[in-house]
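Why should sequence recovery work at all? Because a backbone constrains its sequence more than one might expect. Tight turns favour small or flexible residues, buried strands favour hydrophobic ones, and helices have their own preferences. The token representation captures these environments compactly. In the example below, the structure is given first.
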């Protein structure tokens, strides 16, 4: 008959062996999961980058989806209203809105530039005595494709109202 020490020794060895096997299995699962999660994350980034590149290519084509005279009419109407539309070039945006407050050149070839316009709005939001020291402001950020066409951005206000909205903005943005 086995003594208590022999049984306890054998049980301890089995428990230790199971613990070691469990830790090894946990490590293997952790490594496999981290590789698959990294691969999934990389796949998501690749998908997003490809999708954005496809969208940018579509934005670059907007001016060529109509006769040049029609495009010039759209740009002239946008400039008159101080609006921008998808597909405008940087020069056309500058003609419509003026020079940006901040222009960020990403220079990567895969990400377009970003222009930010900041404008003070009428009315004061903070006073020092009787003197206005801070106006409410509006900020507009315009994103360009790597080829230099507007991809995202709106000028709000009159751009989202008729007649510009229904005559120029909406048909142009529904065309792609």
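From this structural description, the recovered sequence reads:
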């Amino acid at each position: 008959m086995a003594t208590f020490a022999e049984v306890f020794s054998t049980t301890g060895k089995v428990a230790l062996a199971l613990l070691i096997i469990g830790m090894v299995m946990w490590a293997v699962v952790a490594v496999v999961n981290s590789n698959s999660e990294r691969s999934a994350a990389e796949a998501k980034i690749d998908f997003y980058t490809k999708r954005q590149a496809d969208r940018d290519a579509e934005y670059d084509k907007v001016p060529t989806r109509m006769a040049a005279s029609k495009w010039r009419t759209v740009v002239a109407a946008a400039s008159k209203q101080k609006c921008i539309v998808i597909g405008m070039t940087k020069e056309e945006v500058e003609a419509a809105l003026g020079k940006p407050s901040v222009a960020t050149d990403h220079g990567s070839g895969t990400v377009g530039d970003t222009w930010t316009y900041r404008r003070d709005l009428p009315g004061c939001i903070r006073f020092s005595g009787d003197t206005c020291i801070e106006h409410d402001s509006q900020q507009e950020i315009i994103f360009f494709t790597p080829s230099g066409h507007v991809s995202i951005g709106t000028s709000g206000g009159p751009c989202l109202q008729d007649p510009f909205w229904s005559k120029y903005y909406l048909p142009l943005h529904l065309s792609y």
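A few observations help interpret the result. Residues 4-61 form the longest helix (58 residues).
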